[in-house]
């Protein structure tokens, strides 16, 4: 399954897809709601929910950056690159696979 096209924006605790249907991009479709509910035990604060929304909104750009890093790192493997290159390549590949499902 393919994810909703970025860019994604956030407002408080909701992540939206920027809609290119309008010239100003003002119509947005909700992608995720991070649940800004204050629980009695204080474990789910508004600040935490907003931080989660920012992280989720950055996901499409982070995935694109990881794909580019994977290509670059892959070009160095087997060409005398240090071991950390392979280690980072594997971490990047695992993260991409996790994002793709």
Structure notes:
The protein is an alpha+beta fold. It has two domains: 1-57, no CATH class; 60-101. Helix content is 48%, strand content 15%. It contains three helices and three strands; from the N terminus they run βββααα. The protein has helices at residues 46-57, 59-76, 83-100; strands spanning 8-11, 14-18, 28-33. The chain is elongated. The N and C termini lie close together (8 Å).
What's the short version?
The chain is an alpha+beta fold and 101 residues long. Helices cover 48% and strands 15% of the residues. It has three helices and three strands; from the N terminus they run βββααα.
Summary tags:
101 residues, alpha+beta, three-stranded antiparallel sheet, 3 helices, 3 strands, elongated
Structural class: alpha+beta
Strand content: 5-15%
Helix % is 40-55%
Mean pLDDT: 81
Provide a count of the helices.
3
Give Rg in angstroms.
18 Å
Q: How far is the first residue's CA from the last residue's CA?
A: 8 Å
SSE string:
EEEHHH
Instruction: Identify the overall geometry.
Output: elongated
Q: Please tell me the total number of domains.
A: 2
Number of strands: 3
Strand order within the widest beta sheet = 1-2-3
The largest sheet is: 3 strands, antiparallel
- Low-pLDDT windows of residues: none
């Amino acid at each position: 399954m393919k994810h909703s096209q970025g860019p994604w924006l956030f407002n408080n605790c909701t992540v939206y897809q920027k809609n290119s249907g309008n010239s100003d991009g003002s119509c947005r479709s909700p992608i995720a709601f991070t649940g800004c509910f204050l629980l009695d035990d204080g474990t789910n604060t508004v600040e935490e929910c907003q931080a989660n929304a920012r992280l989720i909104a950055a996901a499409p750009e982070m995935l694109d950056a990881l794909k580019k890093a994977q290509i670059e790192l892959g070009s160095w493997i087997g060409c005398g690159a240090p071991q950390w290159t392979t280690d980072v390549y594997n971490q990047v590949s695992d993260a991409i696979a996790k994002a793709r499902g």
